[in-house]
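It is worth pausing here to work through a concrete case rather than discussing structure prediction in the abstract. The textbook approach is simple: state the sequence, then state the predicted structure, then interpret. We follow exactly that order.
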Amino acid sequence: MGDSGDSPSATAEHSSPNSLGKRPHRHDKRSRKKRKLLLSSETETCIRIQTIKPDSTRTFCSYTRKHTDSHFQRQDRIRTKSRRNHSWQQRKWTYSQQHHLSNYKDRVVIVSYNILGVENSTKHPELYRDVSPKYLDWEYRKKILCKEVKGYQPSILCFQEVDHFDDLNEILAKDGFRGVYKARGGETCDGCAIFWKTELFTLLHEENIEFQRFGLRNNVAQFCVLKVIQIFVITYFFSCFILVEATTSRSLLVGNTHVLYNPKRGDIKLGQ
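Step two, the predicted structure:
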């Protein structure tokens, strides 16, 4: 009797839903699928964020930097423009009534160029540490320099920081230029040079100024009075060749100097 009484209770204790014939709920399977799907999507999202985050941060920083730079550049242009307008309004211009400029029909092209003296480039290498030495070599620079200025088809050339005048004079003479040179005194060996087209001008007078004689920095200035050569044009009129004078004879004063760079020494610049 005891065995028959124990067996039903044991069967009841260890019975499961499957053993009782109950089917599992369908929503349990759906829940498990949803959890797996969410877990996989979260993992994929984390991987994607880890992959994209450095580039997106870099892109954002780059955009922010560009936007900031453009903002500051725009503000700087506005300030510069306002300063120019202000200085223009403050200036009092005096117009000459003695000569009517509409009668002057000559086309004169003047080019001013600081060519960087050889000694200055070697004396201050820290200013050109990002420039290859071969580009600072004078034998290389003098050729491309003359090629550069000839591209402007100049009538007159004004050079500063000239310490190899003979080289420039030799090259430019082949293109019909003649020049004069004034070197600075003291330990410095560079100076200023003026060249002009011999077919357009002739030199009437030359004068130089040494600023150190006036208590200023060791620098020089050049003045050249150039006479404009009369140009005659041959025209054909009723089967006759007529020689017509295209320009009247007059003179042109050309000044050349190397203005001091130091932005804090406006007094010296004014003196120059």
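Step three, interpretation. The CA atoms of residues 102 and 247 lie 13 Å apart. The radius of gyration is 43 Å.
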